[in-house]
Automatic annotation (TrEMBL):
It holds the Pfam family DUF1059. InterPro entries: DUF1059 (IPR009409). This is DUF1059 domain-containing protein. It comes from Urechidicola vernalis.
């Protein structure tokens, strides 16, 4: 079982996600982001906008995922 925080994944808080695969961590992070968005949490909005911009470029979002996956694998 590995642990990553919202901040490690580009977010803004110390919420921890625990999983055995990066895909599971990514899913938990995405759910957390949606919850924060629904709550109107301002500290999460800037990181969400940055992620939204990354998603407009398939190459940039792929680079981001590969980087985060490597960090997860190194844990």
């Amino acid at each position: 079982m590995k642990t990553m925080t919202c901040k490690q994944l580009g977010g803004s808080c110390d919420e921890e996600f625990h999983a055995t695969t990066f895909d599971e961590i990514e899913k938990q992070s995405k759910q957390h982001g949606m919850e924060m968005l629904l709550q109107g949490d301002q500290t999460h909005l800037d990181p969400m906008h940055k992620m939204k911009n990354l998603m407009t470029s398939p190459e940039k979002i792929r680079e981001w995922f590969n980087s985060e996956r490597k960090e997860f694998d190194a844990l």
